């Protein structure tokens, strides 16, 4: 039994859910924006959109699912994590402590002071963020 058929969404249902005219799907198929067997399959008279096709349709109508560069979240450093390149932080707007992976060259958690402000990018894993910048300059008091 083919289990991929369960993952495909009928074109009419996807069009209604996204509020996109069905003619747009036809135009995208004719122009080659949606590729047969990669983005859609035809079963009888009906078209079914694959998961890859759904992502392509979202891209075509201007909805991007990946986090943008402006999706950085301000954090306040709290303590060094268990690993040398992991920093425990709290979001500025409140919330629970999260882990921030330090991916910049020669940047380690021990170089940060409590309360330093950084801009972290969310990852696919909930509660884990990434910071690829340098160590913030220490201010004199």
Hey, roughly how much beta strand do the residues contain? Answer: 25-35%
Q: What gross morphology would you assign?
A: elongated
What level of helicity do the residues show?
Answer: 10-25%
Q: What is the β-strand count? A: 8
Helix and strand succession? HEHHEEHEEEEE
Biggest sheet: strands, sense, closure? 5 strands, mixed, barrel
Structural class: alpha+beta
Q: What is the helix tally? A: 4
Chain-averaged pLDDT? 84
| Spatial order of strands in the largest sheet | 4-5-6-8-7
Our measurement of the CA-to-CA distance between the termini, rounded to an integer number of angstroms, reads 70 Å
Low-confidence runs (pLDDT<50, min 5 residues)? Answer: none
Radius of gyration: 22 Å
Describe this protein's structure.
- It is a single chain.
- This protein is of the alpha+beta class.
- The chain is built from four helices and eight strands, in the order αβααββαβββββ.
- It has helices at 4-7, 11-18, 22-31, 51-60; strands at 9-10, 40-43, 46-49, 73-80, 86-91, 98-102, 117-122, 128-131.
- The mean pLDDT is 84.
Features:
alpha+beta, three-stranded antiparallel β-sheet, single chain, elongated, five-stranded mixed barrel, 141 residues
Could you provide a short overview of the structure?
The chain has 141 residues and is α+β, with helices and mostly antiparallel strands. The protein has helices spanning 4-7, 11-18, 22-31, 51-60; strands spanning 9-10, 40-43, 46-49, 73-80, 86-91, 98-102, 117-122, 128-131.
């Amino acid at each position: 039994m083919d289990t991929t058929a369960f993952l495909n969404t009928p074109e009419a249902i996807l069009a209604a859910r996204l509020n996109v005219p069905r003619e747009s799907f036809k135009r995208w198929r004719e122009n080659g924006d949606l590729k047969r067997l990669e983005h859609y399959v035809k079963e009888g008279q009906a078209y079914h959109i694959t998961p890859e096709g759904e992502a392509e349709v979202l891209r075509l109508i201007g909805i991007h699912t990946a986090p943008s560069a402006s999706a950085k979240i301000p954090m306040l450093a709290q303590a060094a994590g268990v690993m040398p390149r992991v920093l425990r932080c709290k979001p500025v707007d409140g919330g629970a402590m999260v882990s921030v992976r330090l991916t910049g060259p020669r940047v380690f958690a021990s170089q940060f002071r409590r309360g330093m402000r950084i801009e972290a990018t969310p990852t696919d894993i909930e509660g884990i963020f990434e910071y690829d910048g340098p160590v913030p300059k220490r201010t004199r008091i």
